[in-house]
Amino acid sequence: MIPAELGSDLSTSSECRVFDALAAISSRGRALHSLNLPTHEYKLTAELDFVLVLDELVLVVEVKGAQVSCSNGLWTYSDRSGHFRQDREGPFRQVTSGMYALRDRLRQRIGAEVDGVAFGFLVVTPDVDLALSSFEWDAETYCGRGQFQREFTKVVNRATAYWRARQPEKALIDKHLQSKLLQELRPSFDRSPLLDARASTLDSAFVRLTDEQFSRLDLISEAPRVICNGGAGTGKTFLAIEAARRQGLAGRSVLFTCRSPILASFAASLLTGTGVAVRPLSGIPAHQVFDVVVIDEAQDLMNFDSLDRMEGALSGGWSDGRWVMFMDQNRQAHLYGDFDLDALQFVQSFSPVPATLRTNCRNTREIVFQTRALTGADTGVSAAGSGPEVTFAQVSDAESEAAALEAHLRSLRQQEVSVGHVTIVSLRGNWDTSAARRLRQARKGKLRLLDKDSATSWPGDVLTWASAVDIKGLENRFVCVIDIDTLESETDVDLLYVALSRPRAGLWVAVTPAIGARVAELYKTHAAAALEALNKVGA
């Protein structure tokens, strides 16, 4: 099974049950799982729930969980949230087109060898029973609730025999060809279980690595020096952590460093047991030298004092050592006030291979649009998917801001959002004067401030509060932005950029009339470019 296991937050999903059932089958081969997020995926293979690369054939498995019905040629599906959608393309037509598209893509990638491979499909509805056979499908290509519970192994074996009998001229898939198929499929299916496997309290089971990110990992493995640029939401921190882990697996001594002790604490929790040394800049050992240095949020360390300290820990130094920097020059380079362009030109003089992340794999389309419309920053040419509209709440003072925030948090609870999935981000960054101090959760001691200790189990299971500076590199499912005193300076807008780009699903922003007027000015300046970028994503 690729990945080897699924996270606990998928334990009730139909995909997880099919995953477990496939894992129990003794057939020789690999089953690749693609998390079923139909509103978040844009790739061809995102529509394929499972692809089984067996000795006999490549079998595409389509899973339709919860309610499935068909009336007068119109199919109706429901998801775990009780939402319904209708489609005239039933699951059998969908999986058929996906199977052929997959075959064509593999043929383009591998060549004529694919013509000798048998392909087939199987539709699974683990929660309901459709007719065993129909004009549109044969019994061997379908598995309903009863068969799934009683004899799933037989169903897969029967489907395999059915498709092999229909393609008798096709040869078995030898190990060499299996390896080539898996290598081509990997960029579309491989997931690095960084979050769930290394920090069980995190709400996401997997960090999905896109084709683009995989190419960057391959580049980092081969090139001795790399500078990787990307906007917020393009996965720099998780890619940096994975790069450090892989360098360690290659037998090298690795230092992962950044400026923020909080971010370092978070990274250390994900790299536990890997042998990678994780230290903030201030904690880099004075007399220890590493084969590789991985630097996250490198724009925060782009000054000669910081570079000198890191070079002392790097075998071969900047000129001959092996290092990789992940940085965002959009609107995060000047938050600390000591970014030095000469320092950047200095490290660039050692001819690092440039790499750019353009795919936003964190934020919804709505969040990406609003972030760019208000800050002008490019957070990627595509987004993770669609979600709720960004909400701007009108407030007049700290008391009304706290009341509006309280009401929004209550609304999230009514929609069954876990408090651990919500973080309050303060642009002012001062807890003593924050409107969040007035919240009922704060008075009852049920609101936790982000610090080095809480970062080790981020986001945890309670409501959290963080300054915009401290939350850099971290994220949560829902974010509430408060304490916006001014948006006049570039630093103010930089802080806004960080805050707006933290949520994956929902964004709520409290604005006074004065801030609202300034937001309108910023929107007028940047909205056209943001809309153009959004339309390109839609295209």
Roughly how many Å apart are the termini?
34 Å
β-strand percent reads: 15-25%
Please describe the biggest sheet, giving its number of strands, its sense, and whether it closes into a barrel: 6 strands, parallel
Shape: globular
Radius of gyration: 25 Å
**Roughly what percent helix?**
25-40%
Rounded mean pLDDT is 84
List the helices and strands and how they pair.
Blueprint: H1 14-23, E1 29-33, E2 50-54, E3 58-63, E4 68-71, E5 74-78, E6 84-87, H2 91-110, E7 119-124, E8 142-143, H3 145-166, H4 175-189, E9 191-192, H5 194-198, E10 207-208, H6 211-222, E11 225-230, H7 236-249, E12 254-258, H8 261-270, E13 277-280, E14 292-295, H9 304-311, H10 317-320, E15 322-327, H11 341-348, E16 353-357, H12 365-375, E17 391-394, H13 398-414, E18 422-426, H14 440-443, E19 447-449, H15 452-455, E20 463-467, E21 476-482, H16 490-500, E22 503-511, H17 513-538
Parallel strand pairs: 3-7, 7-8, 11-15, 11-16, 12-13, 12-14, 14-15, 17-22, 18-20, 18-21, 19-20, 21-22
Antiparallel strand pairs: 1-2, 2-3, 4-5, 5-6, 9-10
Helix pairs in contact: 6-7, 12-16, 12-17
